[in-house]
Amino acid sequence: MTDSATRKRNPGDGPFRIGLLILPDSNLLSMAAALDPFRAANRRAGRAVYDWQVLSPQGGMVRLTSGVEVRTAALPLHADMDLLIMVAGFRLDAHATPALRSWLRQLRARGIPYCGVDGGPWVLARAGLLNGHRATTHWEDLEAFGHAFPDLEPLPDRFVIDGPALTTGGAAPCLDLMLHLIRCHHGAELAGLVANALLYDPVDRPTPQRLVPQARLAALAPQVAQAVAIMESRLEEPPAIAEIAAEVGLSPRRLEMLFRQHLETGPGAFFLRLRLSEARRLALDTGLSVQDIALRTGFSGPSTLARAFRKGFAGSISDLRADRHQAQ
Length: 328
Hints:
Largest sheet: 8 strands, mixed
Structural class: alpha/beta
Strand order of the largest sheet: 3-4-2-1-5-6-10-9
Strand content: 5-15%
């Protein structure tokens, strides 16, 4: 079902109204990723297809982690917008006040979609707005996110749209999400023009976040990073670990040692985790059969995938889909 946040805009519609809620101790890059695509869309469209107001709980100047201060208006008593985007960063315990959480809960009552960026999903979850929804946050915090909020379903995707709830874990995935919204509202041509203006190659569908920070890993252990890249590119026909080791110029034993040193798991277990994460995403986001999912993730057949999936996620693909169907 198409939600109001992603519904195509008609030529006679007025600008899509965005409330950009910035909490103190947010980062500048995430704020820019949440806003600048819409500024560029207006410029490329030659008219105001988007309108926005920058908000904070008390209004006034909000200081970001970079030291830059942003002028904001105070939250209105009653929200009136087409989408609320909240950017949050550090010190969430201090900033996610009872008053803010109470204000956020009116969004659900008023039928206004809401989006959490960076630390934003944590604040939305504390307000109860992600209960019963799929959601994501930065991959490093995803496990803790799921433990902290057992009533939501954490996904490792770059962004997640589940009904009125939109979530993403950081600046680059936020760009992907905003460009996706522009595409939904005004078509691929305008979204492409905006992406070109930003010199950015977007991901226009929910895809898994990297399980490891590739740039940092490449600096610390380039051969491990190469091995991970090989794994990510060959999910459908997974090579043997010995073959991967040979491709990166290591013995299987040395590759095992480096994986355990830098990723705290062996290469075989890491590769299986990658494949199972993609199988889970395909089960949730597509109507593919278990046979087709097995083929796309390198399992010899449905029964092999089923055994690995049950061991990895304590349930079957059919159970996962049934639970998702009931939640809808």
